[in-house]
Amino acid sequence: MTSNIADHRKWLKERTIGSLTRFSKWRKGIKIGLVIGGGFIAAIMGASANLVEADHKWLLYSFQIFGGVLVLVGGGVLEIVDEGAADAIERADALADLVDERDRQIADLGVDFEWFTRLYSTAAALREVVEGVLVAGAGDEDEQRRRFGMMLDIVVSEKDILFGMNADRWNFAIYIYSFQRELLQCVVCRRPMRVEEMAPHRSWKPGEGHVGIAFQTRREIVAGDTSGPEARALFDGPDPNRREEDLARYRSIASIPIGASADEIIGVVVATSDVPGRFWIRRGEDERASDPVEPLRILANALAMVAKIADLQCERTEAIES
Known about the structure:
Blueprint: H1 2-49, H2 57-136, H3 141-156, H4 159-162, E1 171-178, E2 183-190, H5 194-198, H6 209-217, E3 221-223, H7 229-235, H8 246-249, E4 252-259, E5 265-273, H9 294-321
């Protein structure tokens, strides 16, 4: 439907400008004809006046005046009309561009509205999970892992709208810090292929790679393109964890710390894509209303709340038992 409207608008613009252009050429032709024709008549009549008797010269002078009028009309009056036609062409072209710009803005507003709608529905779904934990309890470690996976699925299911991912080689994962092993371990992972999800995943020490840096510094690590030398120095992992495919596979990265506060960071939410520009930090001057990092922030906050509820319930149980 949108394509048909755009094609019709393009056709109408071409027809309008084409008609005005042909009209302008027609006007120019008449102007040239009047000037040349009038000048020719005036010249012929002026030369003929010298060849006839004085009693008949008035008729030739009349035709000479008529030729002068034609020259005046062609050179003066039609010049104004011709300039008006050129202005009309310019105005028609400008108006058509304004219509195209307005339609583009309307289309952008539609995209933004859909993004905000999906973001709101995602946040609402995650809130329901948190509220469910408050009612049913945190459960054991396996139940917690299953719940984390369900929460990650809520975000991944909207990846096409929230992150613009289509045929990307994407990756979403949740890393939780193990005090026993002193490593950030992947507890949940989602990738396009199930076999990749089930494969062994790398673990990271605090400060290693973008996962470890986000955890250690307690701040978001976001890069739209990791192919530059400075970015590679930051996002490249140590030798045991480095793989040849990393440079091509993880071109755009977002690592968001999970924690109820800056002093209670328990892990990191990670999202990556092989397409540059999927993630960026939105600035105040950014014309885009969408923010691809915001859904990850909401997920990280929801995970932190679930983990905090579980800790509080465990402390309560231990207090009761003691």
